[in-house]
Amino acid sequence: MFESEKEVSVLSSVYGEENLAKEQARYEHLATKFKECFGEGEVDFFSAPGRTEILGNHTDHNHGKVLTASIAMDTIAAARKNGTSLVHVISEGYKAITIDLENLDSECKCKGTLSLLIGMFECAIKKGYKVEGFDAYITTEVIGAAGVSSSASFEMLICAIMNYFSNEGKIDYVEYAKIGQYAEHEYWLKQSGLLDQMACAVGGVIAIDFKEEMPKVEKVEFGYDKLGYDLIIVNTGKGHADLSEEYSAVPVEMKRAAKVFGKEVLADVDEKEFMANLNKVREEAGDRAVMRALHFFAEQKRVDTAVKAIKEEDYATFLSCITKSGNSSWKWLQNCFATKDETEQAVPVALALTELFIEEEGRGYCRVHGGGFAGVIAAVLPKDLTPKYVEMMTPYMGEENIYVMQIRQTGAVHLDM
Q: Which residue intervals define the domain Galactokinase N-terminal in the entry (predicted)?
């Protein structure tokens, strides 16, 4: 299967010719499992990537700026409409889910994928989009609960399915992201921004300014390969699935600082006015809110600097922004370990080991990746150093937890095969 000229062309364009055999086997497995679960018939295929955060750590939820990209790890689905009001979803390795679109349980909160799907369908219907019954079998390569947005990848995959089956492609990527965000806010009680969803939906490297209701999205022509560098994601071994309280405290505290100035989010606060009234913010919002706000303002400027540097091919300046952002996240934003268990510091350990390696070699950059508190770090290293780094980190983190990444140009899509 997946050996026709059209299928080879589509898979090669999304995954690269060097990965064709692997992806053919992967999609053949997907098609076989769908047939086993849902029977014979025509099937459509969908894909949505995970994401890497380049700059803009914890700024999106306060309507700030980010630089982000999709990665060559994705969630894929075989799906077809079933002509009923029922949605059947089987995620490989998990319990099957059935949802009746005519009887959505609005009280079903914080129950994993079930709650997420209900929230997404509810939001899509509220926005006036059509949602019809379908069957889907889903598998993923995106690391779960580790900062590369497995949840957003899944959400954007479902949006692509809804868009193709029922809405003639009329739902744009911003709406995709808002549907996913609504589900996380209302059904996971997680105060996430839109960075994860937008990166997984659009594909490639994008700069986003979330200040306006309609985020400004700019495609940026860039890839680490062009610089002779690898992006290496290291999973530190502890997920952040149980850290919603720590994660949500970041936007809450930033907004508390903004409230001192009568604003809802920090993007609407003038930095000079903030500095002139810093003591007042300390009194009314607390010192950690001040530190997190200072991180926000600094990240805003770093994103602008980095995008300008990429356009001018000033890659030394761009790469230096990664280290600066990482240091700010660790020291100012304070999202490298959870305060509820300060003895668990897997992310700082991985960062410390990486920084020692970079200092010894004299080349490279690193930072905490994603929401933080647990999960993954990102190292950006010259390609000739990658094998040595993997060898050094393997005894501490396990070779199976070290991923050499590529940036993927394709977002959440229906694969026209």
A: 33-81
User: What are the angstrom distances between the C-alpha of 73 and each of 52, 63, 227, 345, 351?
Assistant: 10, 27, 21, 26, 23
Beta bridge partners of 105: none
Those residues whose C-beta lies under 8 Å from the C-beta of residue 41, and which sit 6 or more positions away, are 80
Q: Do the beta carbons of residue 199 and residue 68 sit within 8 Å?
A: yes
pLDDT band at 284 (very low <50, low <70, confident <90, very high): very high
Start and end residues for every CATH 3.30.230.10 domain found in the chain: 5-221+409-415
Name residues whose C-beta falls within 8 Å of residue 166's C-beta, 6 or more positions apart in sequence.
81, 129, 130, 131, 132
Question: Count of residues for the chain?
Answer: 417
The two beta strands, 86-91 and 134-140, are: parallel
Which CATH number is associated with domain 224-405? Answer: 3.30.70.890
Q: Residue 255: name the closest of 216, 295, 293 by CA.
A: 293
In single-letter form, the type of residue at position 239 comes to G
Q: What pairs with residue 77 in β-bridges?
A: 46, 138
Looking at this protein, which amino acid is placed at residue 173? Y
Q: Return the H-helix or E-strand segment holding 219.
A: strand 216-219
Predicted confidence (pLDDT) at residue 146 exceeds the cutoff of 70: no
Residue 131 clears pLDDT 90, i.e. is over it: yes
Query: DSSP code of 315?
Result: H
pLDDT tens-place string over residues 182-194? 999 999 998 887 8
Instruction: Give me the half-sphere count of Cα atoms (radius 13 Å) on the Cβ side of residue 66.
Output: 30
> Cβ(339)–Cβ(350) under 8 Å?
no
Count of other CB atoms within 10 angstroms of residue 91 = 18
Give start-end residues of each CATH 3.30.70.890 domain in the chain. Answer: 224-405
Residue 359: how many CB atoms within 10 A of its CB? Answer: 10
Report the CATH fold assignment for 5-221+409-415. Ribosomal Protein S5; domain 2 (3.30.230)
Q: Residue 242 — pLDDT band, cuts 50, 70, 90? A: low
For residue 13, what are its two tokens? 């364009």
Going by DSSP bridges, is the β-strand pair 205-209/65-81 parallel, antiparallel, or unpaired?
antiparallel
The CA distance from 380 to 242, in Å, is 28
Report the pLDDT value the prediction gives residue 406, as an integer from 0 to 100.
Answer: 86
Residue 191: predicted pLDDT:
81
135: helix, coil or strand? strand
